Amino acid sequence: MQTIPTIFRQDYCPYPFKISHLNLIFDLDAAHTHVHSEMLLTRVNPGSDLLLHADGLSLLSIHLDGRELSAVTDYVLNDDGLRVLNPPESFTLSIVTQTQPDQNSTLMGLYASNGNLFTQCEAEGFRKITYFPDRPDVMTQYTVELRADAEQYSVLLSNGNLVDEGVLDDGRHYAKWIDPFKKPSYLFALVAGKLVCQEEKFILASGREVLLQVWVEDGNLDKTQHAMESLKNSIRWDEQRFGLELDLDRFMIVAVSDFNMGAMENKGLNIFNTKYVLANSRVATDIDYANIESVVGHEYFHNWTGNRVTCQDWFQLSLKEGLTVFRDQEFSADMIGTDSGRAVSRIGDVRTLRQVQFSEDAGPMAHPVRPDSYVEINNFYTVTIYEKGAEVVRMYQTLLGRDGFRKGMDLYFARHDGCAVTCDDFRAAMADANGRDLAQFERWYSQAGTPVVTVKSHYDTDLQQYTLTLRQSCAPTPGQTDKSPFHIPVTVGLLDSNGQEMPLYLVGESSAQASCVLELTDIEQSFVFDRIPALPTPSLLRNFSAPVVLEYAYSDTELAHLLAHDSDAFNRWEAGQRLATQRLMQLIKSVQAGEALSLDSLYLEAVGLVLNDENLDPAFRELVLTLPSEAMLAELSAEIDPHAIHVAREYMRQQISAHMHKDFYQVYQANQTMGVYSPDAISAGKRGLKNLALAYLVSNDADEQMISLALTQVHEAQNMTDRLAALAVLVRTGDECAIEPLNDFYQDFADDALVIDKWFSLQASSPKTDVELVRQLMRHPDFNLHNPNRARSLIFSFCHANPVQFHAKDGSGYAFWAEQVLALNAINPQVAARLVRVLDHWRKYQPALQARMQDALLTVANSVGLSKDVQELVVKMLK
Ligand code: PHE
Ligand code: ZN
């Protein structure tokens, strides 16, 4: 392996030149595109040469103030850029480059997809288009002219406003766009192709009219309505919640089927993975609808948090991502509107955080929310930057209140609009707007790892005082052995024996609260509550007020009490999860010891009450009845045994199913949704609960009657949610009953790529699907490794979502993994790197599996031609 350089946050230096304008002309063609760039540069900081980034470009010509530069005396070209020697103080640089979009399989820079052309520039893709300081703190005003064949590329889009269009002498057509806002290169975009749009005029809060468009390939206009609705809701929400208005006259969303990520917030021209745009009830599930709403919101919200105020350098990535995820989470919760709906949405967010981010934080890729170094920035678009970053932002709101948080946001924009700033600037705005000292809070940005908060309680009958003692610790992470205490908001409530909330009088305070935020800043602190007449049950870390692991020695009866009564719906759910997790961890041990398995009635009765409580939101009941995933149980295991985990969890599912068969059947019947499909939270919640009931009913696979219930649902379903859920249940039986419905499904949707993804994914993630079947599916004519959605639907679904087969004892899953990593590495390093991360935790597995995983990792590590992306990861994992 060759060594690749590490970039350090400490080495940040401002760019020595200001570039007031960039004028780009594209002669677009899939085989050869020419890019003419002209920029005005002025030196603002001392330094000598001018450095421009480049990646895989061919330089056709370069002129400085009209004079052609010489490769001998005026500039030096090397692998990652161009150095202009001793430039003047102020000058114009004109460069012509050539790229080959149809040869570009990385999906970064300018690339072709289904005959159309798209760009993706974040983080460092602009350097694959032209020579430029491709860093977020160099902000420029762009003028862009696109020229192309009028028929093949009938639509020509770029950022900002369309100022001119027409026909060229040679018969091609052109369009000229000006973005009135200066921006960093990563927010540049163009789209050229045969596309159609749904458009609408929309009036902003200020009364200004704007044009909204959703662009898709011909034939997909029946799937754009939900994205359009989501966009309008996002615009309204940002006006109302944060006083932020759309600053352009035109806002476009474009769907592309080849895309590495979810979507991209290019100024005024958001480019989306089709998965997060296209929906109608026939092809999209309730989850798809919810994801579309949240991703449309996320990208739209970036217009202020990311674009108007951007990042100084990529170490500050969470400045825009953590904040924007927080905003999209709040948006989704507000769209549901009800308290229980908010809790359901919060629970979903926390589930991802715990399952994915906590495990990242406990592995070889653990890094702070603001990292100190990286090799390949693409590897840092992580759950830590996004989801933990969002939790960090949420903690400001918990500490400062909603109004205080809003004041902080207002000050942040007042200070930094139009600038490229840091996480420290954000924290300073929050502190200054509220007159608070948030110095210690900085550690959430600089220290990796998940803190553990251990709570002990003491009740003094005589004094009628209740004391909670909180103690924090955080395990070492790579490169950080000793951690200093974090500033942790812990929201608590106390329940009396009837399940009623006790008024809380913290010692020294005269007014009572139902819930209060304890601020843990030392390693250990005690908080004393007065006027507590009897021993309470503590409800700790309400609404998951901090991204920590909370330990408290709850008894089963306390947990059942919380599950039945807590006014904090999040903690109600949490109590149920604690009950389930304790039992599952015990069952795993029993499986390993070869003991007989059993499940006690306390658990069954406690969750049975929730299942049958019709006053509760169906979506909430579904969550309570959903066991912690196998991935979550792996995360909690000291030594991971995927087979024991699977057996234990299946056993528990069957016990629940057997004991509550009648209840599930009743719930199944009672939660049918009739009439026209609607993706709203209530209807989706009912479908979710009903389909969970169906899954339990069928989990005793011998039951023919239940299988025919699922078959009937497959045949009669009026929407994709119900059809796919029933099909999944059948596929999971591994029985012949699934063959025909699977074939029908394929036939019905053969021309819809996103649904065929579901078809692959469903099979790949079934515990009955082994690696041989996956290999067979890879030979299916519809399989295509170049398309990330398709690769994810089959390969990632198998490696990520099918642990019991992926971790087959003979190591066949790992050999498959190594092959696919190497195949993808040659096509698309970003996608390959995502797959590498499946083995993050190889050192936590049983020794026999570990040895086989190490073999697979070494196979990859010792291969030639590894991308920076893959190499950085395997090096860190093998360290
Ligand atoms: N910035 C995008 C988002 O979070 C994610 C992204 C990163 C997309 C890199 C493409 C490439 O919304
Ligand atoms: Zn984002």
UniProtKB/TrEMBL annotation:
EC number: 3.4.11.2
Residue ranges occupied by any Peptidase M1 alanyl aminopeptidase C-terminal domain in the UniProt entry: 556-879
Domain Aminopeptidase N-like N-terminal: 42-187
GO molecular function: alanyl aminopeptidase activity; metallopeptidase activity; zinc ion binding
Catalysed transformations (reactions): Release of an N-terminal amino acid, Xaa-|-Yaa- from a peptide, amide or arylamide. Xaa is preferably Ala, but may be most amino acids including Pro (slow action). When a terminal hydrophobic residue is followed by a prolyl residue, the two may be released as an intact Xaa-Pro dipeptide
GO BP field: proteolysis
CDD domains for this protein: M1_APN
Needed cofactors: Zn(2+)
Family per record: Belongs to the peptidase M1 family.
Name of the molecule in the record: Aminopeptidase N
Gene behind this protein: pepN
